[in-house]
Every structure is written in structure tokens, then in C-alpha cells.
Amino acid sequence: MVDHDHWQLDGSAPELYQKYLVPAITTKWAEDLVSRALPQARESVLDIACGTGVVARLVGKRMTSGRVTGLDLNRGMLAVGRTLPSLGAPVDWVEGSALDLPFSAGQFNVVLCQLGLQFFPDRRRALLEMRRVLSPSGRVALSVYSPIEQTPGAHAFVLALDRILGPNASRIKRGEHSFNSPDQLQELMIEAGFAGAEVQTVAQKISFPSVLDYVRFQLLATPMAALLSDRGEADRQAAIKSIALETESLSDSAMLEGGGFSFRQEAYVGTARSTN
Fold this sequence. Notes:
By secondary structure, the chain is α/β, with parallel strands linked by helices. 40% of the residues lie in helices and 22% in strands. The chain has a single domain, classed as Rossmann fold. The chain has helices at 13-37, 54-63, 75-83, 123-133, 152-165, 171-175, 182-191, 211-220, 233-249; strands spanning 44-48, 67-72, 91-95, 108-114, 134-145, 195-208, 261-273. Helix 1 (13-37) packs across helix 2, helix 5 crosses helix 9 and helix 8 crosses helix 9. The radius of gyration is 18 Å and the shape is globular.
């Protein structure tokens, strides 16, 4: 699991994340997650590890009225989220840890966590905290990436990282894909006391204008920026280009059709109730 410190992005990384990675990747998963949670008007909803708030804003749009709270450790991400227009019900932005939620018991009708649980150093504690803050009739919906081999673009990228930057350069990226099966997620939810836990394997098609664009924003707008942080600008750009060329060489022709970079991305999506 990835240390929380890796998620303290600074500089332009949060802005780049919102501008390029949210539209290309996280919005697709956010729309799927919100459609499963079905937040209703006047409900209270918590989005954990909210980043710049794509899930929280979609919830607000769907509810139009109610209370939406976005929580994240990363103040840079939260700062960007605060600048974005509300799509409906306003979002309260809170800096805090998923392992020690700064909320009272039973405070929320719905808890959401999109592609965040895999990064938490204590997943069981995070799930127990989610259940603690849910009302007795509350519900949870969360998602995690499946093994990286099930997402060909990411798999080619991590192989390229290790070849160009050295063994274990891909550790952070591989940490995104640390769940091995839907059963693993379901068992964790059941152990945390959730009722009716169900997990589905879901796939999305991810597309970037080019391999270079995909690699550039992975290495500039995510915690992987740390891999090149000690290099000068010219050296950094040269490394990005080399990694992109290697990623391209490891990708099949269908992924590179038309000069772009498209691939299937897979995740496990779990839903459950607070109690029976």
C-alpha cells in the first residue's frame, strides 16, 4: 500500500490532474459510482479521498439539495476543488484522514470512496470508519482498481517505467492495482460489518490523444512526479519521452490506432448497507 505522504501533491500537479486526468479517467468512474449509490435530495453524503471533487460535484448535481462533504488529505487537491463551480448542492471541503474521520457517528446517509481504498495504510480501519459515520439505514459505494495486468495501458506503462528508470520505479503506480480479486474487497466489507455487500467487475474505455500525453500526465499530475522531481526540466522531458516510446513499444496495435492511446481499464465496484 502507498504511504499517505505520496499524495501531498503541490505546485501545478493538482491543476494538471483536474484538467487532464479527471476528464479522461476519473469522471467515467465517478459517473458509474454515483449511479450505483443513487443519492437522493436532502440526503447527507460523504465523498472520501475526494481529490478535486469529481464525485462530490456529481452527487450535488444529482441531489440538487442536501449536504455534500468532500474529504481528502491533500490540501492542494482541495484547493482546486474549492475553485470549481458547484453543479447543484454545494460541497463542504474538509482536510482529513480516512482512518480517523472528523465526523460524528451516524452523520451520513451515503458514503462514497472512488479509487481510494487501495492507497489507505489500514483498509480495515478505513472501512470501519465509513460504517461508523453512516446512519443505520445508510449505504456505501466504493471502487478499487483490479490487478494491473487487466488494464493494458497501465501495465505497459509500469513495465516501461522499470526498464527506463530502474527496478521498482513502478511501485507507486502498481500500488493503485493492489486488489487481487472482487472477493478480497467483498470480504473486507463484510469483516467491517457492512450488510449485503456486493462487488462487480466493471470496465471502462480510457482514451488519450497519444501515449506521450498519457505518460506525461501520469508523471506530472500524480504522486509519480516524485520519480523525476530531482531532475532539471530538459532531463525530465527527455525521460518522459523515453518512457513514452517504451510504453508504445509494449502496447498492441489496437491500443495505438489512429495515433492515440486507448485501452480497457478495469475496477471492482462494491456496494453495501450499514446494517440489515
